[in-house]
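All the exercises in this workshop are built on plain-text protein records. An example says more than a description, so a record of this kind follows:
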Amino acid sequence: MTLSVSDVRAARERIAGALVETPLNLSRTLSEISGAEVYLKFENLQYTGSFKGRGARNRLLDVAPGRGVIAMSAGNHAQGVAHHGALLGLETTIVMPTNTPFVKVARTRDLGATVELAGADVMESAVTAREIAAERDLEFIHPFDDPLVIAGQGTIGLEMLEQCPDLDVIIAAVGGGGLASGLALAATGHDRPVEIVGVQTERYPSMADRLAGRAVSTAVAGSTIADGIAVTQPGELTSGLLAEHGVDLLVVTEAAIEAAIAMLLEIEKSVVEGAGAAALAACMEHGDRFRGKKVGLVLCGGNIDPRTLSVVAVRGLANQGRLNRMWVELDDTPGGLALVSQVIADAAANVVQVDHDGLGSTGARSAILELRIDTLDRAHAEAVLQKLLDSGVRAKLLDW
């Protein structure tokens, strides 16, 4: 099937009123940091927490009334299908990988879907989903390799180019490629060239490998914080569209994605998941590529597990030198702990945690402290350490 910008425009009319036209805001702070003029498209503000409802809604409108549907998903497509299926009176079943974050499983069930857990990733879940579809005569709703889904995702591009017509680049995460394919189609209808750039994590670079013609995967082993784009087999339709429209694929590190999540939380006061932060990660990690350009970043989802978010936030503070681990050995006599506290307070730092061990020290009359202290930055932490050393306290900063 041949897809064009007219299909994206038709999708926009079909889903109008059922989804939010999300804001596209200039981030002055991220622009100053990156050297690009950065605009953020807040798709994490959709009711289901991601852009996926756009494509799901457009596809579900073609399902016969009353027929059941099934999909495989790591979470966001699941919620889009569940929510819009319920609105349209369709029974929905979602097959999710066994390692899907609990918050996504619970939310999908809350939206009215029956959830089955199967497979280590979405491709393995797809096998089970297709088997169930055949057994129960359910209509299979693919999360990315479907023309109507792609056209629905492309409506984001139409909105962005209306909200900021002189964008030079739009950057978006790529798992199976549905979002980037839709954006590429939308860009063809604009009155000036707009570059579409896709982003993958180093642990799941399947689309980047395919478009580059690499027969051997460059994937790095291990789990990923960007579980929403953890796709091992890119779509056939989407890979063809990305190649046809010259979409470039960048690969970013897990550390860059974590840093981007923390930056969006602190600077923009916005919660995003790993896939949602991938565009910013690319803008930062490949900064020379975008410096001086008007860049639109699609924050494609905000469905992050709260525990994961808390870990990322703490690690972000640690990486900036604002939360520090410090080892201290002091004489186990009255006043020792008070001295350490006073020196740290006089240095304008703050102790947030103290572990006191009077038995695990190197001497019978000494004690070990492990502290966590808040400081302005790494230089401040080093200054606190020096003041402790100058006071005769044995101390050192520890790695996380």
Residues 25 and 127 are 40 Å apart (CA to CA). The longest strand covers residues 323-331. The mean pLDDT is 93.
